[in-house]
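Let's practice the habit of predicting before peeking. Look at the sequence and jot down your guess about where helices and strands might fall. Then scroll down.
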Amino acid sequence: MKKVTLVGLMGMVVLASCVSKKKYVALEGDLSNTKSMLTKTQVEKEELESKVSKIEARVAEYNEKINSLQEINDSQYSSIDDVAVMSNNTKKKMRATLAKIDPSELAKAQTLEDSMNLAISYNLKKSISDEDDDVIVDINKTVVMINISDKLLFNSGSYRVSNKANTILAKLAEVINSEPSMEVMVEGHTDSRTISTEMFQDNWDLSVKRATSIVRLLQNKYNVDPANLIAAGRSSYMPLVENNSKENMAINRRTRIVIIPNLDKFFALLDAESL
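Done guessing? Here is the structure:
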């Protein structure tokens, strides 16, 4: 009887052992499967993250292209009465400038070109000098002509540039240097009174020497490229007004600076203070 009982117990132990081993093997299989699923999930997660990253990169690229196209659109040039071009950004700045101009002067502008000329004249005067009566700016088809009274540049009867001219010439050089490719002509003008001294043979001589004095100073002191500078003497033969009074003669004694600017760079330069 005892032997039977012992055999039975041993059988139960073996059976229990077999059951436990099967469960272990099953659990081990489940663990392996779980690990495989985790690995697969991790791989899928990394693949999704990679795809998302690529999509985000594409979105950023497209946004950059859109912004670039917007910038190009803003800077597109448009024709002004078939004689000039101006970007949309410059037009906005021009409108801001026109808002500062005397309405009576603004009323004289009949075309977009007229408005552009008024805006450039206003900004250039403010940029170069506060002496409104002694600086006259004229514009003809985007060619800018700046007439500066000789009393701002020279002592009476002399071609030597006075110290008070330094501020004006420094600002003028900044405008010229803003567009290195443009040519700049410096013209000397006199009134109609004749002159003949040991220093000056006539008004031709005086006007040329005054022009070359300005050119040399622009080159040597203010680093304007001499290859872009032209000095010319006009004597008394291009007066602004009749030489029939002291006041008018003073107007005709002047130095004229003729420049052809790139309008966008021109406005950008003047933008700091004026726009």
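How did you do? The mean pLDDT is 76.
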